[in-house]
Structure formats: structure tokens, C-alpha cells
């Protein structure tokens, strides 16, 4: 078989979910709405956690970082997909593909780790409330955030460089929403089974280990909550934990299907749907899940909007 060697001067064609859909116009409109919702909701949540001093506590610092990651994650993928469909040009350069892969892996990995740290934050707040500001003091919080970004970016850099060093076959068509490891390996002209095993091991490490920590944290939280004397305290703690578990379930469920499920169980259509879910749907829903039933966030939103958005009324003229 002849080889088509992708170089910096050549590129690929992204043939993703919009091209395989029976109603691409409707799907494009839906994706656009989801993207606008993700931009608005994550932007507002990031704004209130930054501007309102009452939310300058560890829980909302981490929540603000989650919104930032979601906003950037969906922006790496969605605008490109929409513009490709509208302009009828689905090409992407070799460098653009590598950059998209690196950013997506970094943001996905950072969010994966951050969700585990958020579970630890809830564990300390509910099970050790008297020591909360000691265990989760600002320096610790920022160290947690920095660790999430650094570990994710290092892993992403290694995987991006190794994936893109392969020689690719004549077909330039990536039958996927964006440049991601599994569909890229299908274009490689060499045996990638050993590297696929490494991707699997990395996926298990980055997904199942944090997920184990989350399950352990919430198991301990549940035992503590059930022994709370206050009914109102139990309700508030359960609602806070339920919102976080919903986000965890959506993100880890989709990512596990993509990176932990053996390749023999994958199909192009399934992978496209899964990728669309955790790059488009989840970022749009996360801030709504966290904020709609959170009185502190909704109160802060009203205060910030009332202070910075509400137009000032001109003084009344008296004759």
C-alpha cells in the first residue's frame, strides 16, 4: 500500500457527525444553540464566581475553573464544526489537527482531575467542617487547580506528539467530529496495537482512578449525611452532592466509553455521538445543573447583573 505522509504542508478532512446526519441543517442549528447556551451559562457562572466576594470560597473557586474548562473545551471543537458545515469546507491542516488534539486532551484531562478534587472538597466540607478552611485554604485550592492543568497538559503533549508522528494512509478523511486519538489511529499505515494499549492504560489511569476517589468520597459523605441531626442540613448536603454526581456521571460515562471501552466495541457513528455529548452537550448543561437549584449562585447572579448590567436611570428633572 502506498503511503500518504501527512506533513505540515498537507492536512486532513473532518467528516464528522454533521456529514453523516439525515437532517444536517437541523443538527447544525441544535449544535449552534448548545454552543450559545454553553458560552452564556459558563460565562455567567465564571463572572459571578469572580465578581461576587461571597463566592470567593474553595467550592466556587473550583466551580469557576470547571466553567472555564467547559467553555474552552467546547470552543476547541464546536465553532470549527459549525463553520465547516456552513462554508462547505471541512479541511484541517496537519498543525491545526495536532493543536486541536492537544487542546481537547488537555481540557478533557484537566476537567477529569478537577471533578475528583471537587469531590474531595465536598468530602472535607461535609465530613470535616471544622477543618475545612485548613484543608482547603486558598493556597491548597490553587495548587489543586495548577496540578490539574499541568498533569493534563503533559499527558496531552505526549499523546499528541506520538499520535501525529505516524505515517497515514492515502485516505485523508477523519470520520470523526474532531482530531481525536482513536479515529486518527485508524488512518495509520503501521500496526498501532501497542500504542492503543498505552492509550487504554492512560485512559484507565486518568478516568478510573479519579472515579474511584469520587466514589470513595461520596460513600463517606453519604454515611455522614445520614447521621446529620438536621433535616435541612441533610437536604442541602444531598442537593449539592447530587448536582456534582450528575455532572460526574455525564462526563465520566462518555469519556469511559471513548477511551476505556475496547476498540472492537467502537463504531464510527457511536464515537461521533459520544464525542458530541462530552464536547457540546455536557459543557452546556453543567452550569445549569450547578446553578439552577443553588440559591447562593442565583443570588450572586442577581447581585452582579443588578450592579453591572441594569441601566442607570437619569435623574428626574424638576421644574
Structure, described:
This protein is 71% helix and 4% strand. It is built from ten helices and five strands. Strands 3-2-5 form a three-stranded mixed beta sheet. Strands 1-4 form a two-stranded antiparallel ribbon. Helix 1 packs antiparallel against helix 2 and helix 3 runs parallel beside helix 7 (193-226). The protein is globular.
* Assembly state of the chains shown: single chain
Strand order of the largest sheet: 3-2-5
Q: Any low-confidence stretches, pLDDT <50, length ≥5?
A: none
Helix content: over 70%
Largest sheet: 3 strands, mixed
Label the structural class. Answer: mainly alpha
N- and C-termini, Cα separation: 90 Å
The best one-word shape is globular
Query: What's the tally of helices?
Result: 10
Strand content: under 5%
The H/E string reads EEHHEHHHEEHHHHH
Radius of gyration from the alpha-carbon trace, in angstroms: 22 Å
What's the count of strands? 5
List the helices and strands and how they pair.
Blueprint: E1 3-4, E2 11-14, H1 24-51, H2 58-87, E3 91-93, H3 94-127, H4 132-135, H5 138-163, E4 168-169, E5 173-174, H6 181-185, H7 193-226, H8 231-259, H9 268-291, H10 295-308
Parallel strand pairs: 2-5
Antiparallel strand pairs: 1-4, 2-3
Helix pairs in contact: 1-2, 1-9, 1-10, 2-3, 2-9, 3-5, 3-7, 3-8, 7-8, 8-9
